[in-house]
Amino acid sequence: MKKNIAIIMGGYSSEYKISLKSGNVVYNYLNKEKFNLYRIHIFKNKWVYVDDADNETPIDRNDFSIPKNGNSITFDCVFNAIHGSPGEDGLMQAYFELLGIKHTTCNFYQAALTFNKRDLLSVLKPYGIKAAPSYYLNLGDTINETEIINKVKLPCFVKANKSGSSYGITKVYEAAELKGAIETAYKEDDEIIIEGFLEGTEVSVGVLKLNGITTVLPITEIVTENDFFDYEAKYEGKSQEITPARITPIQLENVTIASKKIYDVLKMTGFSRSEFIFIGNEPFLLEMNTTPGLTTESILPQQAKEARIELGMLFEHAITEALS
């Protein structure tokens, strides 16, 4: 009997357009002979099922079902393609876990932790995971520019603590630029992380469970035309994404070990994609994404292709792991 699969997409953050693209790729590539697929748009003002004619049916949030002719369509599994809140920060995970519905991402605690860059780095530090020097601000805190610069040095990055796709991020070269960068970051989040600049090769590492085994996909090297891997570089062709990465065998070994350790220490499930910069042979963690982009141009699908995993099979693996 075919399983009913809800593909959730959209979300409450600036990343909703990218999420809609990811969700539609999942819908188009999953095998419709194996699964009954339902596209579910999640927005602040509506949760709706969208059929192939773009007709919308409101979701019953009491049990996450689609009312139909006096009955309800319920789901065996939810494929989560929401980037940012509420799909990547633990809110949807907690909701589905309360309802007892299987889903393709990690549990709510891991989602909330990984979505918070400063908390993630703090938790991983005792396990030997290296990161750039950092300084934290909450909205309303006094901004001591001298103290910040003494801690992280210049240049530095000012980032929204809980945001993706490089929204709210600025590279700061001079003290006079710091205040404006902080204001930009606060437009995305009420918490900010300011990190020292690390100069080295940047890589992106996809990790997932395949048949219950933590598996690292071929690693991607990021070479950007811009000053850093910003929104333009990620989504508007201003970068090269080279898979497999042009790194040394010892660098490959070190980043593979670090990526597996992070995934296993956090008891992750589903997809993850972590960003690192090499200083010499040592990988320094920048961040971790638990609902990475899934468009055909996105990094994780590129890595799967290099590993000879077709997109449909990649998405099917996620559902199989969730159901198991």
Structure characterization notes:
The structure is a single chain. The radius of gyration is 20 Å and the shape is globular. Residues 229-235 have low confidence and may be disordered. The protein contains ten helices and 18 strands. By secondary structure, the chain is α+β, with helices and mostly antiparallel strands. The protein folds into three domains: 3-104, Rossmann fold; 113-130 and 199-323, D-amino Acid Aminotransferase, Chain A, domain 1, CATH 3.30.470.20; 134-196, 2-Layer Sandwich (Dna Ligase, domain 1), CATH 3.30.1490.
Can you lay out the helices and strands and say which pair or pack?
Elements: E1 3-10, H1 16-29, E2 35-43, E3 46-50, E4 56-58, E5 66-68, E6 71-73, E7 77-80, H2 91-99, E8 102-103, H3 108-115, H4 117-124, E9 134-138, H5 145-152, E10 156-160, E11 170-172, H6 178-186, E12 191-196, E13 202-210, E14 213-216, E15 220-224, H7 231-235, E16 239-242, H8 249-265, E17 272-279, E18 282-289, H9 299-306, H10 311-323
Parallel strand pairs: 1-2, 1-7, 7-8
Antiparallel strand pairs: 2-3, 3-4, 5-6, 9-12, 10-11, 10-12, 13-14, 13-15, 13-17, 15-16, 17-18
Helix pairs in contact: 2-3
